Amino acid sequence: MSERILDFLRQRRSDGPCVVVDLDIVRDNYLTFSHALPDTRVFYAVKANPAPEIIQLLADLGSCFDCASLAEIEMVLATGAGPERISFGNTIKKERDIARAHALGVSLFAVDCEAEVDKIIRAAPGARVFCRILCDGVGADWPLSRKFGCAPDMAPRVLEHAHRGGLVAHGVSFHVGSQQANVEAWDGALSTAAWIFREMAERGINLAMVNLGGGFPARYLKDMPGVPHYGEAILRALGTHFGNQIPETIIEPGRGMVGDAGIIEAEVVLISRKSDHEDELRWVYLDIGKFNGLAETMDEAIRYPIRTEKDDDRRSPCILAGPTCDSVDVLYEKTPYELPVSLSIGDKVLIGACGAYTTTYSSVAFNGFEPLRSYVI
C-alpha cells in the first residue's frame, strides 16, 4: 500500500469512508503501459475514475482518452487536450450527443450495429468509426456481458454500411474482459480481427486500426502477470495474425491504470453473530458497501485486499457487509474473509486497490448515505 496515502490518512480527521488516490502510482502505470506497447496509443478509460486531477495528469503525459459520455468528453477537453485525443467509445449514444461531440471536434466513434452507424451518418458526417465485436472473456474475473459488441461475422456488414454512408470505416475493437488473468486472451480476438480486415479488403475497404480494449488487471488478492508480459503476448499475437502489415493499435486501460493507486479507509460499525452456535461466523459491518463504492463485490467478483492495525492477531473467517438497510448489501459471504478476532467496533479498515470503479459506482444518498469522498494526492 502507498506510504503517501497512509501518511495522508494518519493526518486526516475521520469523517466517514473515503478513497485516496496516489498520482505517483498513476504516472508510473502510464509509463509502464507506454513502454510495454511502445507503438500503441494509450486511451485511458475515463469511466474507471474521472477525478479531474487524474485526467489532467494523463493529459500532461500525452495520454489519449476513451470516453463513454459527453460529460466525460467535456472533462477531457477542459484539461487542454485536443479532440483528436478522444474516442467516443460507448456503442450506445444519443444522436444529439454524437452531434455535440462532433461539433467539439471528436471524430472517432464506436459502433456495433447499423442503427448506431445511421446516427453517426446523420450527426457526424465524415467521422471515423470502429466496430466492436463480441469476445468470450474467458479468464477474466469480471467478464463483460453481451451488452456491447456484435457477432464477428456481422462486423463487415456494419463497417461496409458506414463506408457507403460516407463515414470512414476505420477499424475493429474488442474487450477480453475486465481483470483478465490470461495474457494470451488477446490472441483469439486478434485472429478474428485479422479475418475482418481481410474480408473488408476483399470488399475494397481498407481498415487501419485495432482497438485492443482494456482488461489489464489491478493487483487485488491474486497474483497477476505484470504489464510487460501482456505487452509481449499482444505483440506476438499481432505478428502472428497480421504479419508485416500490423495496423495502428490502441489500448483502453482503466482498472490497470488507476486501480492500484487507490485505498479506501472504512470503519467497523458493528460485529455480531446470527446465532449462539460455536461455528457461527461473525458478521462484520463496515460504513461502506455495495451502494457507496464497492459495487464490484457483486457476486464476489472482485476481492479486495483488506488490512487492519490488528493483522498480527489470530484471525478467523467472517462475513463482510455494508451499512445500508438493504439485504443485497453483503460484500463477501460465499467465500468469507479472514479478519482478526480482536477486531472491534470503531476500528479502521484499509481496503486496497480501490482506485478504479469505486467513486464512479457510488450512489447519491441511498438510505441517506452520502457518496464516497475522494482525495487525490
Automatic annotation (TrEMBL):
Lineage top rank: taxon: Bacteria
EC number(s) on file: 4.1.1.17
Cofactor list: pyridoxal 5'-phosphate
One BP annotation, GO: putrescine biosynthetic process from arginine, via ornithine
GO MF annotation: an example: ornithine decarboxylase activity
GO cellular component: cytoplasm
Functional pathway: Amine and polyamine biosynthesis; putrescine biosynthesis via L-ornithine pathway; putrescine from L-ornithine: step 1/1
A Pfam cross-reference name: Orn_Arg_deC_N
Catalytic function, reaction form: L-ornithine + H(+) = putrescine + CO2
SUPFAM superfamilies the record matches: Alanine racemase C-terminal domain-like, PLP-binding barrel
The name this protein goes by in its record: ornithine decarboxylase
Species assigned in the record: Stappia taiwanensis
